[in-house]
Design goal:
homodimer; 372 residues; alpha+beta; FAD/NAD(P)-binding domain; D-Amino Acid Oxidase, Chain A, domain 2; 8-stranded mixed β-sheet; 6-stranded mixed β-sheet; 20 strands; globular
């Protein structure tokens, strides 16, 4: 093989598909592709609304990836012959009380200073846009360019595109094979070996526990638990993603609605707790009262891969032939196009794009000679 | 057969088991035994705490059935060789605010006048009994004789006892066969006929829609939706069933906890709604704050069979050979022993016990010559 990808989440599958599209022979190894955080994520493609203070450096990278979505999805749907569930709906941030109104004003000014495309709205303007909002909404901020993709469409579509382009999917755990200091492939559960010129480590929060990875190259990822609700009801309730102070309500346009999501440091715990479900429903009802009428279809939890600075780790490891692509935290779907394009370019013999240098895993490496 | 029972919920299975125990040849017909309200119920055996104003007449019937539980369960467990999940835990009613405290006082006086075994507790006494209660609890009422059974143990145990006693279980829908004005058995989906001396109609909320039942004998049941939550966590959180103004929290003693339950008139709708889950969790947290820490394992809805006066319909129909046993509403588990004993006695050639006469379906019959 030219490349074998460890991990069949949105990052691993996007890398495999883009590499296969570039003409490479690719395999993906995952015990259950698309069953991790990629299955539970809401799929917000929101680089503007989710931009955080102190993260100005990464905003342009995030926006660049979001800008790739239309062509990424068009090519993917062409290859797969089915929809990837990308929808350009815009996102409406709202404030329900004076504190949230102040916070929203700060968020607005921050984005305005960076010349990001945001529009401040009065209470009246906000509710005119989305009549389903609570009468107590104090004001809003419209981000017309923040969109969404449906993970429950995207993952099967990526798998289908991979399949059509000849990507092998091995349903197994993997361990890395290293010979003479160079990654040479992976071994599967049954002992089968897949030799490959390059190995991409994209196992999300489990990337730190893949056997055979040299300790210097083990990505410092931790699982960041997110609890999320899936509901169903009237397609007319809201048209845009509604973002409150602590929850978002994301409509798929067909009556399906997602309410998310908690951010919890609890190790590899995927239990759904009464407290989280309660808080999500409470906050969502405060924004859109008719949420109470929706059918609750699923309450679940996923584990995002978080790095020490919560930014992705995408780049070379110290072991030749081993590439790291994990740590995307809350931005796996947002950053899949930019990540896949960069990794596929390197797999095809190119170099890392200048833009993705901030993602290099080298930033977490111990200086030589320091420590044990 | 001596008897065929249409419906394999707790009532139908208890009737079949008791009749088989009396030496009769019995069959039960149900597309999916134990899958209706019997599967979702909490299993409160609470004739004292649940006694309602204006229902004095039925309280002694309910208490009589509750009193049968220990021997009913002992015999059942002997026959089945497994636990029925009956636990004598007592129930603690609590009030979280002044309004609930007034209501609780009225409930207490009503029960005291009827000489029911209840004990009024101060805030301090209430929390001494159950330290997991919220500090804001105003007071309590202890009902030491109100217990519980675990439906998820009871149903498989009833099925096992039936199986061991030779009861045939047919997984099919049934239609009633009537010849020369007399019920003679049932026909199954595939056309198979089961002849029987007696037919017991115990199909819960579907009892009004069994083909072949003469219109005069069609029980006027309606589905009464109940949404309920199942959780898991610390076995020490509470020891007794906690009953608040609008919810109950029922501990199984092994960390499993049930929070219920709504009472909704919505036809044959078993959807779980965001609003109901939210309200149940909100009310439960107000009683026992640590509920928030529990894992939410299941949110579901069942359909109780309600009669026009919400009391059971157990007795003869106007069609010889056809017995009605449905309409148990919120009291299916509570009333299973008294119902099964009465129906089994009649199937064995006896007469209806005097005590169950108030349950006779004849109370809903149109006087002869009136109407179309």
């Amino acid at each position: 093989m030219d490349a074998v990808v460890i991990g069949g989440g949105v990052i691993g599958l996007a890398v495999a598909w883009r590499a296969a599209r570039a003409g490479l022979n690719v395999a993906v190894v995952d015990p259950e592709p698309g069953s991790g955080a990629s299955n539970f994520a809401a799929g917000m493609i929101a680089p503007v609304g989710e931009a955080e203070f102190g993260e100005e450096a990464v905003i342009s990278l995030n926006r660049d990836s979001a800008a790739r979505y239309p062509s990424f999805v068009a090519e993917l749907e062409l290859d797969a012959g089915r929809s990837a569930g990308y929808r350009q709906t815009g996102t409406l941030h709202v404030a329900v009380d004076a504190d949230e109104q102040s916070a929203l004003e700060r968020h607005y000014r921050f984005r305005q200073e960076l010349e990001l495309p945001v529009e401040r709205l009065s209470s009246r303007q906000t509710r005119d846009l989305e009549p389903g909002l609570s009468p107590s909404i104090r004001g809003g901020m419209l981000v017309d360019s923040d969109h969404q993709v449906d993970p429950r469409a995207m993952i099967p579509t990526l798998l289908q595109a991979c399949s059509r382009l000849g990507v092998q999917i091995h349903r197994s755990r993997a361990s890395l094979l290293v010979e003479a200091g160079r990654a040479t492939g992976v071994a599967l559960d049954g002992g089968q070996r897949i030799e490959a010129a390059s190995v991409v480590l994209a196992a999300g929060p489990w990337s730190g526990a893949v056997p055979g990875v040299p300790s210097d190259d083990t990505p410092p990822v931790r699982p960041v638990k997110g609890q999320i609700l899936r509901l169903r009801g009237s397609p007319e309730m809201i048209a845009r993603t509604i973002r409150g102070g602590s929850v978002y309500i994301l409509p798929r346009g067909d009556g399906r609605v997602v309410i998310g999501g908690t951010v919890e440091e609890r190790g590899f715990d995927t239990s759904v707790t009464a407290g989280a479900v309660y808080e999500l429903l409470r906050e969502a009802r405060a924004l859109v009262p008719d949420v109470a009428e929706l059918e609750l279809v699923e309450a679940s939890a996923g584990l995002r891969p978080g790095s020490p600075d919560n930014m992705p780790m995408v780049g070379d490891s110290t072991t030749p032939g081993l590439i790291i692509a994990t740590g995307h935290h809350r931005n796996g779907y947002l950053l899949a196009p930019a990540t896949a394009d960069a990794v596929a370019a390197v797999l095809a013999g190119g170099t890392w794009p200048e833009a993705t240098r901030p993602w290099s895993p080298s930033r977490f490496r111990r200086p030589a000679g320091v420590g044990a």
